[in-house]
Request: fold
Amino acid sequence: MTTLGQIRSAPAGYWSPKLETMPREDLTAWQWRRLQQAMAHARRNSPFWRDRLPPDLRSLEEYVERVPLLYKKDLLAVQAADPPYGTWPATDPALGVRYHQTSGTSGAPPLRTFDTGRDWAWSVDLFCTALYGMGVRPGHRGMVAFGYGLFMGFWAMHYALERMGCLAVPTGGMDSVTRIRFLVEHQIEVLGCTPSYALRLL
Reply:
């Protein structure tokens, strides 16, 4: 049986060795090339980003200095003016394979968005990178303790566990007491939830 202590002390490794071990200069150059491609696509296809992105950016440093911070209220404003998504998507919503929105717990309208198949593959891969870096390996058992609703939440973590060859245990409809029983009965080694909910379970 694998224990949490063994997971923490698992041998070092990388989910994406080439990318994760790239020299810093090469990584920075790669990031800048990818950002340039993304900005060009956004300018061509999104009125929101066309107005927001300066056309003459020459480096990552300039991007950080000159592109204004993006706030949720900015996206909500354009969404309200042009529902359901506003003018910020740079891809045809017909290409979406998943729909998500924020929880709406603030009382404000939810922020709506969609993922294409490519977006979704990227999101799952990010979770694989993070989980692998934390010591999660094929064969581990993971519980994803969130509602499995429209909120993005831990959807990508669930699919990342599957992609990594782990057992993913969805507990969306369970109360906390039942989840605790599952943690014990199924010898769960990886728990996905918010920090505040982890404290609640404790």
Notes: Residues 1-11 have pLDDT under 50 and may be disordered. The CA atoms of residues 9 and 135 lie 7 Å apart.
